[in-house]
Amino acid sequence: MITLRGLTKRYGDTVAVDNLTLDVREGRVTGFLGPNGAGKSTTMRMILGLDRPSRGEALIGGRPYAALRHPVREVGALLDAKALHPARSARDHLLAMARSNGIPARRVDEVLETVGLAKVARRRAGGFSLGMYQRLGVAGALLGDPRVLIFDEPVNGLDPDGVRWIRELTRNLADEGRTVFLSSHLMSEMQLTADQLVIIGRGTLLANTSMSEFLANSAATAVRVRGPEPGSIAMLRHRLESHSADPAVRVDVVSDTELVVRGTTVEFVGDVAHALAVRLHELRTMSASLEQAYMELTAESVEYAVPGSTAGANPSPRQEAQV
Amino acid sequence: MSTITSPQRTLGRPRGGGLAGAVASEWTKLWSVRNPWGCVVAGLGLMSVFTYYYAAIARINHKPIQPVANAPVTAVILVQFVVVALAMTMVTNEYANGSVRATLLWVPVRARMLLAKTLVAGGVSFVLGLVLGVLGVAIAWPAFGGHATFGLGEVASQLLKMSAYLALVAVLTVGTAVALRSEASTFAAVFFLLAALPTVLVGIGGEFLTTVNDALPQSAGNHFALGHTDPYPPEVGFCVVLGWAVLAHVVGLTVLRRRDA
């Protein structure tokens, strides 16, 4: 488990990470989202003991990273996969890593096999493609068979096959009871991979919730209702608007035979329609995509917004997604 | 796709790591790139040429008879920069390509990481010094043409002292590199301390500037390895070089602990 307590990082007057308190639990894939400059990488670097927090602490299994006796055996990290000596071979890179933590050399060949780099293991890493770098980075993260894995943008530069490989890998790692903390900009990919979401904007925590709850609470999640008789649809609309004690319930009229109802459940709308004996041809939930829900949340905290852009404020045209 | 095999058998029980692991890791990194081999070759070349000319000039000019190892010891004024390059790139390369973050993930305790680099750079430089010294003696002896003395004990003592000096120069360089991070500024700083400043001080001359020069690592190392008793005993010369190396190490460690990687 990764524990953040009041984690704060300042650079002069700029607060990059502001008082983050959260737990990243084992047995799940926790997605870490936020606009560029939100503080994701800084947070990960503080967890890994690379950057010093200005205040607060980041613990792994209750201890700071630097206090781990064999850190590579406890935490696997993929940060900047290209950050290695271009003249060194992939195998020598991992060998140096293994020796630093008392890991036998045959484990190096094992992980190279796992990530599919066994054939190029003795070639200079400088000639690798971005996808090969990422695989080498994953090999390094897996080397010590750690309980905690931290991946910063792991699917960057991977082809569709590689993206799928990372998805299955992270899923398996979490299913084995490990803690998987992963950042990505690819919303569709994150929606497929993550169980839990941690979202930050301008260094502060915006959301820490399960994926299903996050999508359900999005304004883009709505109930679509359609019937053949305009009169009874109007009656239904009137009842939904007036009956509802909850001001969150909003009804949009798409046409005189079709409504989109937000802030309530498909069960409630169905019950009201039944009570009024309104004939329906369609009644269903339109789930928000992670991208829509995320855009709503972070619209105000985009660091480098294009002037005049309303990116995220109006997530339209609407896409319908199944969860 | 089942990608995670159960690696418990391959991995074994947690052992190793610590300082020994950190040293093994630095050693593996050092020799898995071409750079240190280049430094070794450059050192062999510089030492050969310098000691040959030193001895030949002593013979031609009928200089007083001197210990044969004076040739390699004097060559250190040039050869030391091979050691500087070797030690410096162990640090500055990692900052240039970002792999220092990997190093710190493997060995997160800053003092241990720095000590490992220091031990490997110092140890390699010491052994390299001995090899270069023996080569220098072998080349200088015939070139002296009788204008030198050969005593096994004397040669051994001088070469050991010279190698100790080179090891300390490597330590000083590692500390400076960790503090400054970039190759250009590290080389400039070390070159200024070891070569430029002594040249200027001796060039201007005067009692005060000579005293200042005697407190710099280059002249102190020279006094130590050549066995001078003036201006201070050889042991003091060693302590002066050691002091500079420790100072650079402490400054490097302080920066390493305070600054983000």
Would you summarize the structure shown here?
Helices cover 34% and strands 25% of the residues of chain A. Chain A contains eleven helices and 13 strands.
Spans of chain A of 5+ residues with little confidence (pLDDT < 50)?
308-323
Gap from first CA to last CA of chain A: 27 Å
Query: How many E strands of chain A?
Result: 13
Report the principal-axis shape of chain A: elongated
Shape of chain B: globular
Strand content of chain A: 25-35%
Oligomer: heterodimer
Q: Could you give the order of the helices and strands of chain B?
A: HHHEHHHEHHHHH
Q: What is the CATH level 1 assignment of the largest domain in chain A?
A: Alpha Beta
Mean pLDDT of chain A, as a whole number?
89
> How many helices of chain B?
11
Largest sheet descriptor of chain B: 2 strands, parallel
Assign a percent range to the helix content of chain B.
over 70%
Describe the structure.
- The complex is a heterodimer of chains A (323) and B (261).
- Chain A is of the alpha/beta class and 323 residues long.
- Chain A folds into 2 domains: 2-215, 3-Layer(aba) Sandwich (Rossmann fold); 222-286, Alpha-Beta Plaits.
- Chain A has helices at residues 40-47, 71-74, 90-100, 105-114, 130-142, 160-175, 187-193, 211-216, 230-243, 266-276, 290-298, and strands at residues 2-11, 14-24, 28-33, 55-60, 75-78, 148-152, 179-183, 196-201, 204-210, 222-226, 250-255, 258-262, 282-286.
- In chain A, the strands form 3 sheets. Chain A has a 6-stranded mixed sheet, with helices on both faces.
- In chain A, α3 packs across α4 (105-114), α4 packs across α5 and α9 (230-243) packs across α10.
- By secondary structure, chain B is mostly helical.
- Chain B has one domain (20-258).
- Helix content of chain B is 80%, strand content 2%.
- Chain B has 11 helices and 2 strands; from the N terminus they run αααβαααβααααα.
- In chain B, strands 1-2 form a two-stranded parallel ribbon.
- The longest helix of chain B has 35 residues, at 110-144.
- The model of chain B has no long low-confidence stretch (mean pLDDT 93).
- Chains A and B meet through α2, α3, α4 and α6 of A and α1, α2, α4 and α5 of B.
